Amino acid sequence: MVRRRQKDPPMTGKAADTDLITPSIVPQVRRPRLFRTAPSHSLDQPLSADRRTRCTRARPCGHNGRVSEPIQPSELDDLVVRMTGVGVRRTGNDLLADLDWTVELDERWVVLGPNGAGKTTLLRLAAAELHPTSGTVDLLGDRIGKVNIFDLRPRIGFTSAAIAQRVPGEERVVDVVVSAGYAVVGRWREEYDALDTDRARELLTALGIPHLAERTFGTLSEGERKRTLIARSLMTDPEMLLLDEPAAGLDLGGREDLVARLSELALDPEAPAMVLVTHHVEEIPPGFTHALLLRDGRAVASGLVDDVVTSDNLSKTFDQDLLLERSGDRFFARRR
Predict the structure, then answer these.
(1) C-alpha–C-alpha distance, residues 245 and 241, integer Å
(2) In the predicted model, is pLDDT for residue 44 greater than 50?
(3) What region does 204 belong to: left with phi over 0, alpha with psi -120 to 50, or beta?
(4) Residue 148: beta bridge partners?
(5) Poorest-confidence range of 48-52, 81-85, 180-184, 252-256?
(6) Region 214-234: what's the mean pLDDT?
(7) What is each CA distance from 282 to 103, 126, 138, 224, in whole angstroms?
(8) Which domains, ranges and CATH numbers included, belong to the chain?
(9) Is the distance from CB of 213 to CB of 174 less than 8 angstroms?
């Protein structure tokens, strides 16, 4: 049985998948649901004493050698992401600048913006893959630069096009999902308990693709690959789920099916906090509660989705005169 916890001895075998590393936690009582247990850090379960100690201990930041101020535990009890004055600068260009953003435990965020707005950079910060050039980033109660990111990353589910490119074409779909327990892409010599394989098949069923379990990844359509990777990111009940343009490249039917399944996921009260990056308002699943609009690395608007996703804000974000229309709980935009 695969059990990845912070105090486990180091795993052997293939190198870790740094883009998508999630822990495998097998509970005693299994249920046929997307999420088997509530997130370990919940609103009615404050940070444990040892987690509080780590949060409040001031240590040198690994990326710049400076000592940061201690984080007060009460400040992070309800937050999975807190970015304060964050900037990311590369080769003289600001990918993000002076960004303040928080995500709470029960929130589902959509991040919208044109190409080059900084959306993927933001998501990589939230996935503990980047250090900010300036400002501070707190994830799941720990500050980037004061925590071992290899302890932090296993608590975050992350899926993107970069992951799909690294999956071997001959890999069985069920193995793509179950291998998240070892944080590898491509099953090698890892051994898995039947409970783990059953869990992977449950997720494939929940995402509507149980019939693909024995197929190889290289034979799947784009939509089938997207759903397989979402199942992989959910394999081990992450505390935060990050989705980078999950509907990119899908046809109309594939997009609508994926939006419906993400909506079901968003409405699940046991689901973790979610952040979805997209270019299109049509891809916002019902059940998403908040929105962040980015342009040129800066926030245009941030807050409740109904307040932020408006014609005026979208026009500023995309530098077009846009008209936003709404049908039920779906959004549609076009140029005036």
Answers:
(1) 13
(2) no
(3) alpha
(4) none
(5) 48-52
(6) 91
(7) 22, 24, 31, 20
(8) 49-335 (3.40.50.300)
(9) yes
